[in-house]
Amino acid sequence: MALQTQHPAPGSPPAAGVPRARPNRFSALLHRSPGLRLAGLITAPAGWLVLVYIAALAALLITSLWTVDTFTGKVSTVWTTDNLVTVVTDPVYQRIALRTLWIAAAVTVIDMVIALPMAFFIAKVASARWQKLLVIAVLMPLWASYLVKAYAWRNVLAEGGLLEWMGAPVGLASPGYSETAVILTLSYIWLPYMILPIYAGFDRVPDSLLEASGDLGAKPLATMRLVMLPLLVPSIIAGTIFTFSLSLGDYITAQIVGGTTQMLGTVVYANVGAANNLPLAAAVSLVPIVIIMAYLFIVRRSGALNNL
Amino acid sequence: MTETRTAGTSTASGSVPAIRLRKLTKVFGDTVAVDGIDLDIRQGEFFSMLGPSGSGKTTVLRLIAGFELPTSGSIELEGRDVTRLAPFQRDVNTVFQDYALFPHMSLVDNVAYGLRVRGVPRAERRERAREALERVQLGKFVGRKPAQLSGGQRQRVALARALVVEPKVLLLDEPLGALDLKLRQQMQVELKELQRSLGITFIFVTHDQEEALTMSDRIGVFNNGSLEQIGTAHEIYERPAGTFVANFVGTSNIFDAAHARQLYGRADPVCVRPERLRLSWSGAPETGVGVTARPGTVTSLVYVGHATQVRVQLDDGPVVVVLEPDSLPGSDVELLGRRVSVSWDDDAVVWLPSDVA
What we know:
The complex is a heterodimer of chains A (308) and B (357).
Chain A: H1 25-32, H2 34-64, E1 67-68, E2 75-76, H3 82-89, H4 91-125, H5 128-139, H6 146-157, H7 162-167, H8 179-204, H9 207-215, H10 220-248, H11 252-257, H12 264-272, H13 278-299
Antiparallel strand pairs in A: 1-2
Helix pairs in contact in A: 2-13, 4-8, 4-10, 6-8, 8-10, 9-10, 10-13, 12-13
Chain B: E1 19-28, E2 31-41, E3 46-50, H1 57-65, E4 72-77, E5 80-81, E6 92-95, H2 107-116, H3 122-135, H4 151-163, E7 169-173, H5 181-198, E8 201-206, H6 209-215, E9 218-223, E10 226-231, H7 233-238, H8 243-248, E11 253-255, H9 257-264, E12 270-272, E13 278-280, E14 291-303, E15 308-314, E16 319-324, H10 332-335, E17 339-345, E18 350-351
Parallel strand pairs in B: 3-8, 3-9, 6-7, 7-8
Antiparallel strand pairs in B: 1-2, 1-4, 4-5, 9-10, 11-12, 12-18, 13-17, 14-15, 14-17, 15-16
Helix pairs in contact in B: 2-3, 2-4, 3-4
């Protein structure tokens, strides 16, 4: 409510000092019609999604309903559910599906156990400078090729390799090329995908909530259990979606360090290549897709999908 | 740390202060946030820590709560040394500036939290939480989540949550800062009444001098990590101990040492409150025993509702602000630049220690 009189500005600025925006009919048109704006924005990505993604999935489903001519080795477009029935009922495929599921679950749990304290340290304990450095350190392995990392683990796990050398004094043997080796290697490779969402989750929890909990009499463990974990559930689920689905579809690691271990991915790979049975490969590859969709459906309500 | 305990603290239990700080110091990197503070806060007192941001008042509060550990010095809670204890070991509770309500819990679970971690059975703690919410007029909302409440309501939940565990001292970190003026004034009254009826010691951190003046039994004015003055609202306002307090609490007209010597023949800075100054629009100096008058020119007029703040450039002194309660003898344009005389009673003048100036 200032009643101060305005003193005339000494030497007022020239009237035409600032240039006006040039008229642009197209921009003006876009401004007037939101529909046009929206169409311009999403046509390309929507087209990509439908054509490349959904169409490919549909092709997969269709292929699994075809069969292979045993004589010519060519795909014949005769409709049949034989492939799907084989995949679901054959004990061999059942065992492989269960093993794949077990490996993916084990990798997810191991990564979760490692990622929680690491993410907590990065987000809540480390100084701002260290926080940046540690996030970069977590991301760094992603810059190296997946194959290089898998082969590095092959060396680590090999007879006379690093693991055996380190384990010998304490009486631990290297798991060799086995299912355990696959779990170890996949846990290593997918760990950053678990740390990052959990780190982001920790980072979003205000420090004052933790202080308030301690202030009200909660010891650190109670604060963790009653305040931190419930708030982190969506972030943890976001991380598990990554590690679980990536492990579920893997076939390279299984081939490099798995020895004779068969996973769904290796079965697909073998059927596309050596066995030349594309329809069966398509049918097998539907299994992880169904599992992941079921998992996504279960966690959808947790709000985790908003944290990806 | 505990060695600095003053002799005789544990003797007379009736006079044991609720909080006793001795040479309390906190250093972050190379900044000294709290610089050797000595302070006794009495039991049942409403004590305000007032100061600009960065003056160390919030750090002192966090040291008392236990969120930070002091670099040196000691903190006693009712005679017991708590300097190195964790927050959950101290009988003090905090109302946070952002309220810090747990977003995944309903109001009743939020308020019952302190009882829950103390092992109070579910039925009992929920009952007590419900009563506490009732006390802050939120009995209807027990099942709601914090996100569904307004700022003022969240504030009350935070208060109920801290009080339900019956702390010896309640710490409030600028709890009214996010509320609008009307609500803030209402909460000021409610807080003061609550404190009086509970008899709990309240330590209230604020940068709002009006808030501190209206609510507190005593005020500690912080500047650069030190206490500039401790006293009642009246003492702080009427007898500021230095230029900082005089400037920070209310508006002050300060004459530096040179001007003061011209006026009174004593080379110490001096301060007069705007409402103690009188204006003579005619320019004729007011005369009388114990009255000082000086000529000057009006430079601006600001209407503040109940009065008008008139700025006058004294011919031989600083620009002073005069609070003129009466209607003005003319329009702004007519009054600007007018020659006037400013006068005041000599006993309205407060001498300030010259070393601070």
